[in-house]
Design brief:
Length: 128
């Protein structure tokens, strides 16, 4: 018999709220079986949740993660999924490199202003 999970088990395991899991369900990413008010999540749901959260850590939007996950079930299968993932990882990497460049510029500007402020403070203190 395939393992199953409650919403509490998944939220505890992955450190997300029940609301987050319900949201993923409401947009059709997770599709648990329902018995009255009780939700039962499959191993597939668990893996999907893990992939969504991993994608989030990599900077993917929810729609990008869903696109990658959905591609696994499409005719391209795992090969198509891996090709798409490689392309998306390359795109995200370029975005991050650009952000790093912007951050380095901002940090250098802050350092410069900070040095000028310290210098001016020294001048003011020596004038006393």
């Amino acid at each position: 018999m395939e393992p199953s999970y409650s919403i509490s088990e998944l939220s505890n395991e992955f450190g997300v709220t029940n609301i987050t899991i319900r949201y993923y369900e409401s947009i059709g990413i997770l599709i648990p079986k329902r018995y009255g008010q009780k939700r039962i999540y499959s191993s597939s749901d668990r893996v999907t949740l893990e992939l969504i959260l991993r994608g989030k850590r990599l900077g993917f939007s929810l729609s990008e993660s869903k696109e990658i996950i959905d591609l696994y079930s499409a005719s391209q299968g795992e090969e198509g999924q891996l090709k798409l993932l490689i392309n998306k990882l390359n795109d995200k990497r370029l975005e991050l490199l650009e952000k790093r460049k912007d951050l380095n510029t901002a940090l250098a500007t802050m350092d410069s202003y900070s040095a000028k402020c310290r210098q001016r403070l020294k001048e003011l203190e020596s004038d006393k």
